[in-house]
Write a structure and sequence with these properties.
The complex is a heterodimer of chains A (about 240) and B (about 220). The longest helix of chain A has 14 residues. Chain A has a domain of about 160 residues: Rossmann fold. Chain A is an alpha/beta fold and about 240 residues long. Chain B has a single domain, classed as MetI-like (MetI-like fold). Chain B has eleven helices and no strands. In chain B, helix 1 crosses helix 11, helix 3 crosses helix 5 and helix 8 runs antiparallel to helix 11. Chain B is globular. In chain B, about 40% of the residues are buried. Classes of the chains: A alpha/beta (about 240), B mainly alpha (about 220).
């Protein structure tokens, strides 16, 4: 089966430091692919390239087997950041913004916003000021804002970092519930979350994809030494 | 006390000088915004060679002496100058143009700082939601709008309170180019201190109240 989105030998350097080193990853529609790894492993860099926010020094990104530019990638994908970033407007306007600039009809926007907010249990929050919400609620607005766009590639960078279990559970449910027609890539260093959500797991270590497997074999029979140490919590940065 | 009476009595000359000052400085500031805000957006949001030097230059020009600028523009606009053909010298237009140039470094420098202080992740956010370059700039400018507004107010205050450009390019002609600052200078030299004080009180009240109002509105913002 052809992956929906894949990277081919992506390399990215910042100021001479190699953040990604010939990385090949792929994600299929209807599946959650987790990118796991310690801080600084290159997870965010990889997601930013897949979101069309950064350009690799070499290598390419394919969608349905065709090479795409960062501008074209932004038509396919959207990304949720680990830090809450809200527009200084209402919750409704935050979610409606992407729909509006992507030329959804004004008639459809209210229903799409309401349904996206319902996915993250924020019914009735439309008129609240987004920046006045709690951290967990803001993250849920960010998830709703991304889901409302109905892009075929969803990128979640540490979607539940620093959140309490109740908010994390709502977000995990929304991610799992939205995967049907999408390829979802999520970065996390929370291995139990990756196990719960993923259909495939990729371990990034020092900018290289050192392991790629289904969760069961990822945990029971990892092929790389770095992954074994990572699972045991003994991997050095 | 006579100064206050002059203000409260609604003296027509004081009212006309105040109205002329407000319109010249207001239009001069708005004219400057036409080029200064796009320049500051470019400086804040784009990377190019020489960006740091350009920003430093605008910062340095904030303190340009008004008489120096006034003299330079006088030479340009005077009958024998390169722009003498337009016969702008000693008209309200000359003061307006002079003030628009005078406040350009203020609008550019302060607006650039305001736009640069907007959370850079907002830019990434807008792009991941499908915003074009122009729509991304719109997001950043909307977010930094209060900083830009304060820059424009500061610029207006500078134009409204300056003397050199208004005196050298306007000539302080009664009912034509006499603005608050030139009128204050004139009345002081004539010895009409009460009228000078009345005009100064108006000048101070307008400049201070504008900043206070903007700050109050800002606090009730997002």
């Amino acid at each position: 089966m052809m992956p929906h989105i894949e990277t081919v030998d992506i390399t990215k350097e910042y100021d001479g430091l190699r953040a990604l080193d010939h990385v090949r990853v792929r994600a299929e529609l209807g599946q959650v692919t987790s990118i796991v790894g310690v801080n600084g492993a290159g997870k965010t860099t990889l997601l930013r390239i897949l979101a069309g926010l950064d350009t690799p020094n070499s290598g390419k990104v394919l969608v349905q087997g065709h090479g795409v530019t960062p501008d074209q990638l932004r038509v396919h994908s959207t990304m949720v950041f680990p830090r809450n970033v809200m527009f200084g407007t209402s919750v409704y306007e935050n979610v409606a913004y992407g729909l509006r600039i992507n030329r959804n009809s004004n008639h459809d926007i209210p229903a799409k916003v309401t349904s996206a907010l319902a996915l993250v249990n924020l019914d009735g929050f439309e008129k609240r000021k987004a920046r006045k919400l709690s951290s967990g609620e803001q993250r849920r607005v960010a998830i709703a804002r991304a889901l409302a766009l109905e892009r075929d590639v969803m990128l979640f960078d540490e979607p539940t970092a620093n959140l309490d279990p109740a908010n994390a559970m709502i977000i995990e449910r929304a991610i799992k519930g939205s995967v049907r027609s999408r390829a979802i890539l999520l970065s996390t260093h929370n291995l139990s979350q990756a196990r719960r959500l993923s259909d495939r797991m990729i371990h990034l270590y020092r900018g290289r994809a050192v392991e790629e497997a289904e969760p069961s074999s990822f945990f029971s029979n990892p092929s790389s030494e770095a992954t074994k140490l990572f699972i045991d919590g003994e991997l050095q940065y | 006390m006579r100064a206050v009476d002059l203000i409260l009595s609604g003296d027509p000359e004081i009212l006309s000088i105040t109205a002329l000052s407000l319109s010249i400085s207001g239009l001069g500031t708005l004219l400057s915004c036409v080029w200064s805000i796009p320049i500051s957006a470019g400086l804040a949001l784009r990377n190019f060679r020489g960006k740091r030097i350009t920003k430093s230059l605008f910062n340095a020009l904030i303190g340009i002496p008004t008489v120096a600028l006034g003299l330079f523009l006088y030479l340009l606009l005077s009958r024998s100058g390169p722009l003498g053909y337009f016969q702008l010298l000693y008209t309200p237009w000359a003061i307006m143009i002079g003030q628009s140039i005078l406040v350009t470094p203020i609008v550019v420098s302060f607006s650039t700082s305001a736009l640069e202080s907007v959370d850079p992740d907002l830019r990434s956010l807008a792009r991941t939601l499908g915003a074009s370059d122009l729509q991304t700039y719109e997001v950043i400018i909307k977010e930094g709008i209060w900083g830009v507004t304060l820059a424009v107010i500061a610029a207006f205050n500078r134009a409204f309170a300056e003397l050199g450009v208004a005196m050298m390019l306007g000539g302080n002609i009664r009912n034509v180019t006499r603005v608050l600052t030139t009128a204050i200078a004139l009345e002081t030299s004539r010895g009409d201190i009460a009228l000078s004080v009345a005009l100064t009180l108006i000048l101070l009240a307008i400049t201070m109240s504008l900043s206070v109002v903007v700050n109050l509105i800002r606090r009730s913002g997002p």
